[in-house]
Amino acid sequence: xxxxxxxxxxxxxxxxxxxxxxxxxxxxxxxxxxxxxxxxxxxxxxxxxxxxxxxxxxxxxxxxxxxxxxxxxxxxxxxxxxxxxxxxxxxxxxxxxxxxxxxxxxxxxxxxxxxxxxxxxxxxxxxxxxxxxxxxxxxxxxxxxxxxxxxxxxxxxxxxxxxxxxxxxxxx
Length: 172
Prior knowledge:
Elements: H1 7-35, H2 40-44, H3 55-74, H4 88-102, E1 117-122, E2 126-131, H5 132-157, H6 164-168
Antiparallel strand pairs: 1-2
Helix pairs in contact: 1-3, 1-4, 1-5, 3-4, 3-5
């Protein structure tokens, strides 16, 4: 007999792993810049293409996806950040703060969230309406991994020695 996957299991541990691996690739990016004698903060403004957001925004959005995702599923307010990070150290602090926040959630806090009504206001698409399951699987998870992947790709594009194992992290 197989147990069903809870909303908690499909969210918080997944978010934490993605953010932990993102921190790891950022650390490698910072070390690469220092090793090349470059100012690491310059890498934070790197983009894959001129019309894409820079590395720092990719990290900010990834952390927002995780913290807002958990909060909306639990029906609570999420902490807000100023999005003013200009150093790797400040990004690590943001990642750590979000990981600590995610640690405040447990199975009980997301119980029944699969049917919770969630509305997300966007600049380009207006209000998006979901049930909790659709929000998690159709919005949060794809967006989180999009921004983590773009951050990885920016670093890789700028010569950071990264591979699939860095992106995936240790086996769960």
